[in-house]
């Protein structure tokens, strides 16, 4: 897990206000009354569960001009900082969703460890171009606003490759079986500082001790795959 500063506090507040200005474009996720939304279509929700579905592509096309008009400067900043950190250029393929926002309003913020424990495997739902190396992956989270009590990620010292080996040998059936054998670490988030990892480490959105009525957890999310000398960023 690596930490990469991207935004100042003032810039993060500007992004937060812009996300709320676009509330008409938020996509509700979950039962009514909804308190968890996305701004933009994440592939883990709109594609990975049914790779044949056209909803992801349609939503990605519809969201791109809206997001780029309002957050073009942010995407350019992200590409600059992440490209420098990785030592290689990054780009945003036209046929994929731009990195987008998770919006948890107060009622949806986890106060108990109930968020899914998972690896980021949605890249398997795509047909990638020649030159793609699916051994070189990344996932990132850029916190824009956090609850008063903070926010972060639970991470276990277990990789997807270790999970596959253990499953082949019959030691485990699901990813959560790994919790018996591996150590959990809490990684606290800082507003404006991006957390970057491979996506192949076992992880979970961490709960917070308490939630205030005006709290929210707002993050910019994305993933990347290596292809022909550059990183392709998407959501």
UniProtKB/TrEMBL annotation:
<protein>
    <submittedName>
        <fullName>Uncharacterized protein</fullName>
    </submittedName>
</protein>
């Amino acid at each position: 897990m690596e930490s990469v500063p991207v935004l100042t506090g003032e810039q993060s507040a500007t992004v937060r206000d812009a996300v709320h200005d676009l509330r008409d474009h938020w996509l509700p996720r979950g039962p009514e009354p909804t308190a968890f939304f996305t701004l933009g279509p994440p592939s883990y929700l709109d594609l990975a569960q049914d790779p044949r579905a056209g909803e992801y592509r349609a939503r990605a096309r519809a969201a791109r001009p809206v997001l780029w008009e309002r957050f073009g400067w942010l995407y350019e900043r992200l590409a600059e900082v992440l490209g420098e950190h990785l030592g290689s250029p990054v780009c945003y393929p036209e046929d994929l969703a731009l990195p987008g926002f998770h919006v948890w309003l107060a009622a949806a913020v986890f106060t108990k460890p109930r968020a899914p424990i998972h690896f980021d495997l949605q890249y398997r739902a795509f047909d990638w171009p020649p030159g793609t190396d699916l051994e070189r992956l990344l996932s990132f989270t850029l916190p824009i606003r956090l609850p008063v009590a903070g926010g972060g990620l639970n991470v276990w010292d277990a990789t997807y490759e270790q999970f596959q080996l253990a499953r082949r040998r019959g030691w485990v059936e699901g990813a959560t079986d790994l919790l018996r054998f591996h150590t959990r670490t809490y990684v606290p988030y800082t507003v404006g500082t991006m957390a970057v990892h491979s996506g192949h480490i076992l992880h979970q959105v961490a709960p917070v001790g308490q939630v205030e009525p005006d709290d929210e957890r707002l993050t910019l999310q994305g993933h990347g795959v290596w292809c022909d000398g550059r990183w392709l960023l998407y959501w």
